[in-house]
Write a structure and sequence with these properties.
The chain has about 190 residues and is an alpha/beta fold. The protein has 5 helices and 5 strands, in the order αααβαβββαβ. The strands form 2 sheets. It has a 3-stranded parallel β-sheet with strand order 1-4-5. The protein has a two-stranded antiparallel ribbon with strand order 2-3. Helix 5 links the parallel strand 4 and strand 5. Helix 1 packs across helix 2 and helix 4 runs parallel beside helix 5. It starts with 10 loop residues before the first helix and ends in a 25-residue tail after the last strand.
């Protein structure tokens, strides 16, 4: 079979396909239970969604990718741009996260200059890398027609390790999609 159906015929294949086909039976209250499954299995389930399932919401995406484990491979073929799973919303999830405990300056006053530690430690910006900061492989193929290249450019700012990107069936690159079919006539050059 194809690379997507690599495990066709296995119990795992049938289980993942069944979950995807019954996805509409899950709701937001069921999403926290997905954290019980290993990340690799949840990412495989997401890949099955691309082929066999319905579109998913941004909340379902977060449930399938939750946790502190770093995500390196992500297949969102045919999912991004439908419903609430949009590139701008994904961009917000891919940004570095604000640290929950931002260190504040101590109010303790030292008795002497010798007691003050002037050593320079690592710069604490108050930001921690997102769980997608190590993403190297990403598929955004088969988007709906109103997908914007501007949104993709904003998104890729937060994926610096990306080495493999599938944009199959994306529209022709343009920053002015409303003018992509416009022609200009001139007497001195072809249209």
């Amino acid at each position: 079979g194809s690379g997507q159906n690599h495990g066709a015929g296995t119990l795992l294949h049938y289980a993942l396909k069944t979950v995807v086909m019954q996805w509409d039976m899950l709701d937001g209250e069921d999403y926290p239970a997905l954290a019980e499954f290993p990340l690799q299995l949840r990412l495989q389930l997401l890949s099955y969604m691309c082929v066999h399932g319905p579109g998913i919401s941004i909340e379902a995406f977060e449930a399938l990718t939750q946790g502190s484990d770093k995500v390196t491979h992500l297949d969102l073929s045919g999912l991004v741009g439908h419903g609430t799973l949009t590139l701008p919303r994904l961009t917000k999830r891919f940004r570095p996260e604000r640290s929950k405990s931002i260190s504040t300056a101590s109010n303790d006053v030292a008795d002497s200059w010798e007691d003050v530690d002037f050593s320079i430690g690592p710069l604490d910006t108050g930001l921690s890398p997102s769980r997608f900061s190590n993403l190297t492989h990403l598929s955004l193929s088969h988007p709906p027609s109103p997908i914007l290249w501007r949104d993709l450019l904003a998104f890729t700012k937060h994926t610096p390790q990306l080495t493999h990107l599938s944009l199959a069936y994306w529209p022709r690159p343009t920053l002015t999609p409303n003018l992509s079919t416009t022609t200009v006539s001139s007497q001195h050059s072809p249209d």
